[in-house]
Amino acid sequence: MLKRPKVSNVILCDDIRTENNNKLILIGVYTADVLTQNFPVNMKLATYFTVEGAPIGQHEFEVRLISTGSTSGISGTVEVGNPNDPIIVITPPVPVVFQKAGKLKVDFRIAESGWLKVMTKEVRAGVLPRPEALP
Question: Are 118 and 10 in contact (CB under 8 A)?
């Protein structure tokens, strides 16, 4: 088994798009719990995070989203030239079904490193609070 990479800068959102200048646009960022008006609910969720310490070479990776009664995932390939340089992992929106309130877990693995917990969020019924804007 390889040394376990470190995951940081984790963001869960509805979608991630790329501008013409290659900057990312993160749409519908979940800053706290995942709130929905009712259950069951079908959602599509995208993830953004950085990984440090991945082994050199071309590797398969997987991201899985686990909710109560449902597991979704996506896989891809990444080229790591220097294990000291972080790689950015961005997933397109992945369908997730929430049958009831509970937890959403996001896991990641690359090469043979084993599964790493990326994040856990509560999923519950509620209304999003209005964010406070600074002048």
Answer: yes
